[in-house]
# Entry
Amino acid sequence: MSHTETSTRITTTTTTRATLVKRTGVSKVLSKKDSIRKSSKKRRASTTIILLSNVNKTKKNFNDNIQKTIITTEYNHQHQNDDRTKLVDSQSQPSPPALLSPSVDIESNYLINTSLPPSSSSQSLSSYIEPDSNSPFRNSASPRESLTSIASEKVLLMSSEQQSSVVQPLLTDLYQISMAYAYWKPNKHHELATFDLYFRKNPFGGEYTLFAGLDECLKFVRNYKFHPSDIEYLRASLPSYIESEFYDYLSALDMNDIKIYAVPEGTVVFPRLPLMRIEGPIIKTQLLETTLLTLVNYASLVATNAARFRSAIGADKTLLEFGLRRAQGPDGGLSASKYCYLGGFDGTSNVLAGKLYGIPIKGTHAHAYVNSYECMDDLSQRDLCDRITGERRPFSDLCLHYLNEIGPALKILPEETNKGELAAFISYAIAFPTNFLALVDTYDVLKSGVPNFLAVARALHECNYQAVGLRLDSGDLAYLSLEVRAKFHEVSKKLNLPYMEHFTIVASNDINEDTLVSLEKQGHSIDSFGIGTHLVTCQKQPALGCVYKLVELAGSPRIKVSQDIEKVTIPGRKNLYRLYGHDGKALCDVLTRIDESAPEAAIRMLSRHPFSEQKRAYVTPTSVKSLYNLYWADGEIRYSLPTLKQIRTYVREQIDELRKDHKRDLNPTPYKVSVTDDLFQFMHKLWMKSVPIGELE
# Structure
């Protein structure tokens, strides 16, 4: 009996009883209590028999399927006769139908150690980071393959649109709640305010920053709601004399009458430029401060860090984020994976980030896996079925044979390589014959790791598979990568297998931006970098320092003055424009008063430094771009939000708009942030008015 039929029967029984009560009255129902109970027992008994029967049938079918799977896979590898990994003529046969749910796509290409199609064996790893929808590798022929793959964006699990459970109104500083009450008590909370969110200095000694975190800010504002438990906690925490009406006000509070203007996420931005302009009742705009800052600060910082790593190594190398274990907690780990991908990285080791955000996930094995084998006797499985013919091949014997064959070409003694390491490589290759990428520095890279890897790679070729490459996790990465590449060249020549010369070399080992710059100067042969600690913790600069300042209240401009010039705010509501030169590169950014006319292409204008009267220049832009969009108004997101991949592409375009001297790692040229002459005069008049005149005695 199906679940629907059971539900129908229960509903029918309930309806019958209700009708019986209505027609005959309570006394008659009571008198017929026993008969109803007996008939109900009979129905339940029959239902139980049918349900048990179906359970037994299902159980039998399940066991039969398991038995069939055991029979068909006991002597056959999962990739046997799999055209997706054929070395020659991979398109000669159609791919087998997927055995998984149609709502799930398996992307084996999302692993570091994923084999290339035959025609692409000489290409760099970056050439197959984004899988082709028409690729023969799209569908898996085995459920086991899902262990080495990721679900595509079609998987309808917890999506990136869902807000983290910790991002809620109480994720704020106490003084925001205190000010909210202080605004509310004298009935000042209805006054309309404008706040600017910006930062004062570019991070990492550079001259640009990437704006990130906008989508999380909008989701926070959309879902803003104090829950009953929040209100009870505040009642218990705040002074007892606070009126209950204030808590009633908080309970009903939403952000429907707030407006948020912002630059698009992924935009290159600069100090003092408002990234977001928040308008609305002061109590509400004030309550948003801390949460918006925490959502923007780290996201923008780590995205900028990732972009700098990308600039240091160039566009032709693959960058992988491996920082989860070193991140500041699980939320920091997830944010790092998301915003490093936005900033230019190609994948992550973080499986949950892959699931939530659709980021390609990468990973091979650790030193512990190699250490877990001491000798060849530790191998419990030694054979591998040929991928095309299905013939059982003595794989471990083939590996030993080819180790002896390539030993002279590598100028090593085959008997001197670590046989526990060789056993580990053999075992891993049997498990993942289409995704074999080995960690080779557990013992000795050149005398053991590389020879063992190449022997296993040659044996895989004998069985019609193709290895992917190796990973270096210690030592002189520049020197080792060049030596390894030279050995690949020698062996590929000796074996007449050209693709072996182009095996992927992945490097990790506490890599930072300076390491990448140094490697580029030294020369190396690394295709891919796995980077963790220095990336996600932003060790060069642990915080961006965004601030949130009141610039207008009830139509009256507000300015914060300070003896520290960089802390003086630019008052009033403002618009932001980017001016471009004839070469398509950004010339400068200009802030205008809200009611000023926008700058126009081919029209000469005076731009001024916000705080220095002597610094000014005329500029005639070839084109002008308005940077603000209205993202939130009337209780809804008003502007279409791009996907993470679209933002990633936009980031590359934005960085390309900057001149090279703005992006260089050493002494970059400062980018010009200016204001119109009208805004300059208005600002300095208010500044002078706000500073008291001293008196000499």
